[in-house]
Each structure stands twice: as C-alpha cells, then as structure tokens.
Amino acid sequence: MEKSLRAFKIDDKRVLFIISERYNNLLKRREIEARIEHVGVGTPTRSEVKEILSKIYSVDKDLVVVRRIDTSYGRGSSKVIARIYSDAETLKKFEEEYILARDREEKKKKSE
C-alpha cells in the first residue's frame, strides 16, 4: 500500500516529507522515499535521518538503512531513499556490504 506526502517537523529549520512508502512483503521491509527541506542549515547526516525515521516509524534505528541522500545544489532540499527492515537478520541478508559499511564508519566517526 502506497501512502504519500506526510509532513513531520524535525526542528525550526527542517521538515521531512514522506513522498512515498510501500511495504515489500517478500523482503520484509518498508521502502521509503522522502524529502527533507533544510533551508539555512546543512544536509542532514545519515545518522540524523536514521534517528528521525526510527522515531516516526517507532522502530529500532539499527533496522533503518539510508541508501541515498541527494541534495539539490543551493536549494536546501534533499531527497532520501531509505529502507526499514522487520529484523536484523533480513537486513544483513539483503543489504549490500558497502551500504552497511557506511553506517559503521559514521558510527565510528561519531564516537571519536
């Protein structure tokens, strides 16, 4: 089932719009396309997007995978492609290693 254009205020300068979402029964994951308006502030990091989506969907942030964040030059708007898995085993089975490595690298940088 596809839903479209729901808005969530992140803070005073950022708003997340869910453009589309669908549940993939075969892969046991929710596939999300979103847009973040962030005029006057930088592009949100993958970990920020994961945290926001995990709060919106009430899931553990370790089950959220941010595939892409594409920012339009000079516009203060970013397109986000993300997936939310039902369990960690399915996530590890279907996500490519380089995508998971990006997440680990960002966690490492954050802890330093």
Strands, total number: 5
Q: Please, how many domains? A: 1
Q: Tell me the strand percentage band.
A: 35-45%
Arithmetic mean of pLDDT: 89
Shape, per Cα inertia axes: globular
Distinct helical segment count: 3
Low-pLDDT parts are none
Helix content: 25-40%
* Main CATH class: Alpha Beta
Biggest sheet strand order reads 1-2-3-5-4
Largest sheet: 5 strands, antiparallel
What's the CATH topology label?
Alpha-Beta Plaits
Distance between the termini: 41 Å
Order of helices and strands: EEEHEEHH
What is the CATH homologous superfamily assignment? Answer: RRM (RNA recognition motif) domain
Rg over C-alpha atoms, rounded to the nearest angstrom: 14 Å
CATH architecture: 2-Layer Sandwich
Structural class by SSE content: alpha+beta
Overview of the molecule:
- The protein has helices at residues 46-57, 88-94, 97-111; strands spanning 6-11, 14-24, 29-37, 64-72, 77-85.
- It has 112 residues and is α+β, with helices and mostly antiparallel strands.
- The longest helix is centred in the last third of the chain and has 15 residues, at 97-111.
- The mean pLDDT is 89.
Q: What would a concise description of this structure say?
A:
By secondary structure, the chain is of the alpha+beta class. It contains 3 helices and 5 strands, in the order E-E-E-H-E-E-H-H.
Topology (SSEs and partners):
Layout: E1 6-11, E2 14-24, E3 29-37, H1 46-57, E4 64-72, E5 77-85, H2 88-94, H3 97-111
Antiparallel strand pairs: 1-2, 2-3, 3-5, 4-5
